[in-house]
Design brief:
The protein is α+β, with helices and mostly antiparallel strands and about 250 residues long. It has six helices and ten strands.
Length: about 250
């Protein structure tokens, strides 16, 4: 990963406008986050004299060199105009974690909800940043379908993980082949197949060690003789579903 700082320079922002400025910055960072052009949702914002510094982590250098996405550019333009500022971007370092897989170089994909980046390579489990991938949402140039599904998955998982509100119900949402969360995820996998002509497997969450040997979708055999990617014990090539023994 590459660490950058976004520097907005110009007039000092009055205290009474700073909350509105931070809301606009939040919208800018959200637009970058939704396409995985930045890695973390929470970023440090520092007001220093007539400059504002925002520290971001990007999967690769091409995020900056090839240009930010359309929505981010629009928010930058709005911020510059509304607050009489000018943006510059400086590279300040690297992080050893690699998050820069290419969708072109893989044989198949995994839609994996238990991850900050939900699209993975079936070859080596490398994360694939969405900005490198064709847009998946048909109504506009975005990844809205993946973003909303992943947000719902995160929220359901968080409630289940706390264990204090109807834990069996939220576990069922995560692990049932018939839950709306699973159905929507499989739809996304099918859409990815249409876009790339490569299979996309859906990861079906499991916390238990008593998984039936029959695929929960077609009833066929799906238990693997050997675990793959050091994660998955079950794989149905007909239904394009993966799962595991015990929690991941």
């Amino acid at each position: 990963m590459i660490i950058y700082q976004l520097i907005f320079s110009g007039d000092s922002i009055p205290d009474e406008l700073k909350p509105f400025f931070l809301m606009d910055v939040h919208a800018l960072l959200n637009s970058l986050n939704r396409s995985n052009q930045i890695v973390y949702k929470d970023n440090v914002v520092s007001f220093t004299g007539d400059k504002v510094y925002i520290f971001i982590a990007c999967p690769g250098e091409e995020v900056i060199s090839n240009g930010l996405n359309f929505y981010a550019k629009q928010w930058i333009s709005n911020i510059e105009e509304d607050y009489s500022l000018k943006l510059s971007i400086e590279r300040i370092g690297e992080h050893p974690e690699e998050l820069n897989g290419s969708y072109l170089e893989v044989s198949a994909y995994i839609l994996y909800g238990n991850s900050y980046l939900p699209l993975r390579s079936l070859d080596n489990f490398d994360p694939i940043p969405l900005y490198k991938f064709p847009y998946t949402y048909s109504d506009n140039a975005s990844y809205y379908d993946i973003n909303m599904w992943h947000s719902n998955y995160d929220n359901v998982y968080a409630i289940w993980d706390r264990g204090d509100i109807n834990e069996p119900y939220f576990k069922e949402l995560l692990s049932s082949i018939e839950s709306q969360l699973t159905v929507e995820g499989i739809k996304i996998c099918n859409r990815i197949k249409q876009l790339t002509n490569k299979d996309c497997y859906f990861y079906l969450f499991n916390y238990d060690n008593d998984v039936p040997d029959a695929c929960p979708s077609c009833g066929g055999s799906w238990k693997l003789e050997n675990r793959i990617l050091d994660k998955f014990d079950f794989k149905c090539d007909k239904c394009k579903i993966l799962s595991n023994l015990g929690v991941e």
